[in-house]
Design a protein that fits this description.
This protein is mainly α and 171 residues long. The protein contains nine helices and two strands.
Amino acid sequence: MLLQRTEKARRELSPGVRTLSLRERSLLLLADGKPLSELQAMYNGIGAQMVEQLLRDGYLAGLATTQPVEPPAPAPETPPEPTEALRSLAGTRMYLFDLSERLFARRDPDLARSYHAALREARDRQSMLAVGEALMAEVAKVAGDERAQSIRERLEQLQPPDRALSAAMID
């Protein structure tokens, strides 16, 4: 079964609306046209519960396919690397927006607004990653280098591979 976002989900993903958790929002962002089994395998198997809840709450709708539905895979011991289909600049940008919101909105609203504005202005990969690095430097000041490094690693997993750079390295 393929999943599709509903109008309720599109409203949730619109700017200024934050009723779901970061993981639920990222699932909504990735869900449109994705197979149910792919989303169920996310987040060490917790994705199955999250997809079920999002379907029940009306954020997602299932589209029937002719392929048989696979049972969810058992949860792996280590978090899986995102597949090519799950890597995107949009997902990376959403992660940075939510990170800024969670870490700075209450403590320093002006700083959170400045990161939001900078991310909205970042139109390409390099400018968006520059904002991300500035955000990581701020995280290191507030939460320490170890926390900043773990966030940086997750950020790297979310990014699509730089095909131009990869092709240049091969030649």
